[in-house]
């Protein structure tokens, strides 16, 4: 059955891929769920075979990423990245110099370590640096994101989409791309991008840091003492109506013997001498003194950095795709499952009024959470998809393993760049070396592996196979040729513009997998060298700076910088369009379209 030149299986593929775009732009369903759901449809309908479906998860992009996560773990645990972060930033004399001082080393690191990892590592350091320079963190976090993404265009390891396209190229030709294949055009657009950020720095928004909303805990917590003869003594919290009160909620009880009950269950009994800790609107909560006969405690229980040896306050940010989005803590069960209590919520740098546990959360919200002292490893394991903790206190020990890990990283790049071994073998060898030299421990490696990304990468490879197998790539390529003519430069510009626009609303990985087979068919039909088409696509899907959804590093800084969704468009649209023109020109100078 053929409809508009496409078979039924081709239409199933198109609907499955379009459903991913719709789901990711219209809901909070995580990317890996959307991609795996579409992959399931392709398998069930017979569009791809089981062998083809499984082949994607054993492809070069997935294996290289998995091995590289181990390398990153070694660099983190051995202290290499900590040393670079600590010594990479100086004390610039102006905001312009601060941007340059930040963007240059970040760009270099991102070419070697993947921009997302570099941004995650630098966020806390940049926020502290901004306070020292008396600059709003948002004005340095946005340049950090740009530098990481731009620097990642210089090598195959710098961005996930680079590896996806490299793997698809290898399937088409049987030859692998060099690690530094995109280096020259990548360096040019990185340089142009840095210059544009410096020139247009006045368009970088100044947003209040969420931590400023959490500076004085007495503004949102209050401690009330239960007298021994109070009528609530002997009743449960639920019976006394003390759990959810006007203006706030009970987050913990401190017993006279220093026992701490947190979170507080409804069936917990009230005892004389209990200290009830409430969070919310203080003026309204204080009405409990009159209505329930409580008295003010003689001292405030909280200190922003540390309460006592048994309790700490930690800051976390709600990630994009989090299951917590659209829910309140009273509904989702997160607190009880993870032994922590929400104390306050900040949104776009300002504290959200109302009962914290009744506030419906949004992506990028900053949460102040009270929890027992947990190591950074434990915090990383607390539903990493839902929250990201950035106030980490982990300080690795600098020593011989720091040097060993740095040598392994340098050797990995040396071996790969001179084609001594393929990229996949090189990264696997480096990962094994990190484990054998104990630069990273096996039991701590798991927290560095982004399983969701590996699932997405595996699924995108299968989608590319389906697009080629069902004839979609050939039909779409021919239609574009019929509309735009046979000028290869026009075709390249149109396809790169479309791919980069799609990336703004989905992500670079999905966009690269969809457009690669189409642009490859066009190069074949025109009789052109496919390399400039491949490299231009690789770069164009990465420069989606106009929204936080399209750029992974923008998503990381969204919460810590208290950004608004529209903040990214002010600077991003200009940089996106300028870099698109620059990359098409430079790619064609470096890789002639006819060879």
Tally the helices: what do you get? 27
The major β-sheet equals: 6 strands, antiparallel
Q: Give the mean pLDDT.
A: 81
- Principal-axis shape equals globular
Stretches where pLDDT is under 50 for at least 5 consecutive residues are 298-309
Percentage of residues in DSSP E strands: 5-15%
Our Rg estimate from Cα atoms comes to 27 Å
Q: How many strands in all?
A: 13
Helical fraction equals 55-70%
Supply the helix-strand structural class.
Answer: alpha+beta
**How many angstroms does the end-to-end distance come to?**
40 Å
Briefly say what this structure is.
The chain has 595 residues and is of the alpha+beta class. Helices cover 55% and strands 9% of the residues. The longest helix is centred in the last third of the chain and has 24 residues, at 567-590.
